[in-house]
Amino acid sequence: MPNIKSAEKRVHVTKRRTLRNASLRSALRTTLKKFDVTLSQNDVEQARQALRIATRALDKAATKGIIHRNTASRKKSRLTRRFNTYEKNMA
């Protein structure tokens, strides 16, 4: 238990940020799962829209410091590559 008032505040702020970060990470995972589901439904336009949403969510998470920017870049690259192979196979 902190003895200094500023340390007490840091504990509260850390708890609040941890909860918010967990919520945002969970939402990000949900968005990525929705992309997977959309990809399995054999609809190119919906998959393209889901890819756009997932990419935006990854960028936003990286900007807010929820995930590292290289992690976001790697995930976007993999999602895009999966979408491109899917689109190529559908044509």
UniProtKB/TrEMBL annotation:
One Gene Ontology term of the molecular function aspect: small ribosomal subunit rRNA binding
Keywords: Ribonucleoprotein, Ribosomal protein, RNA-binding, rRNA-binding
Keyword Ribonucleoprotein: yes
Coiled coil feature spans: none
One GO-annotated biological process of the protein: translation
Pfam families linked: Ribosomal_S20p
GO CC, alphabetical: cytosol; small ribosomal subunit
InterPro entries membership: Ribosomal_bS20, Ribosomal_bS20_sf
HAMAP family xrefs: Ribosomal_bS20
PANTHER family: 30S RIBOSOMAL PROTEIN S20 (PTHR33398), SMALL RIBOSOMAL SUBUNIT PROTEIN BS20C (PTHR33398:SF1)
Function summary: Binds directly to 16S ribosomal RNA.
Family the UniProt entry places it in: Belongs to the bacterial ribosomal protein bS20 family.
Identification of the protein by name: Small ribosomal subunit protein bS20
Lineage summary: Bacteria, Bacillati, Bacillota, Bacilli, Bacillales
Gene responsible for this protein: rpsT
